[in-house]
Amino acid sequence: MPLSPAQRAAYERDGFLVFPGLVATAEVALLRSEVERLMPVQAEGTVREGATGAPKSMFRLHETDGPTASPPFRALSRTPRVLGAAKELLGDEQLYLHHSKVNVKAAIEGSVWPWHQDYGAWQLDGIQRPDMATFMVALDEATEMNGCLYFLPGSHRWGRTEAYLDTSTAYRLWSVPPAEMRRRMAESPEPVAITGPPGTAAIFHCNLMHASGHNLSRHDRWQAYFCFNTCANRPLDVPSPRADHVRSRNWAPMQLVADDAVLQAGRAARAAAE
Ligand code: SIN
Ligand code: MN
User: How many domains does the chain have?
Assistant: First the structure.
């Protein structure tokens, strides 16, 4: 899916692109069945919250091993729609995933992600340059009520803002201090809510300020994230590196698969189970 010059210009200007209907209804159904299968699985990379213990995040879906491995999510991350677009925008043929995850944000209990830049954490992982981008795929209708993502357009061009470790939710997040955020937002266009039906997708720059609110609705808000890095920009050694599910050491360049590979992966899993 080659991007148009207008899309490339919009990414440079705003730091994100939205792709309505990128993932088809049948693919969303298959990916949702994978989320249901993985939610009860106990794994190092699954962070739970609330009285129900629903996952806030489930990591490491894209590998071929481990308790949360999911062939359909792995396939999706390698389709031309996803990997091809990431290659174009990062200007590099050789990409790997720093991590992948589904953020469940359960009805009523699913909590806020404060304003942050992803590179705030990733540079602490030893990554030297902000040559990274994240693909988000909505697996539910994303609404303002259920805690959709918000992007601050153009904020990736500010460079990196000093972050602090916000420990107020189950996932400890390197976030932008509130006073700094108030100052920045006063000078910025209004945040953009990334809403839309299941299958809506977006890609965003690792220095783009983004956040999402508490899920006040009675519906879960399931969203998948694939965080791409260039192989050349793989992390340098750091003292006490974070675990593999969040700071991958699999730096092998990802290979493109056919666009129907997600459904094929589902068919293969069903055949193996018979
Ligand atoms: C993130 O920024 O990593 C997650 C935000 C969300 O799921 O709303
Ligand atoms: Mn983020």
Answer: 1
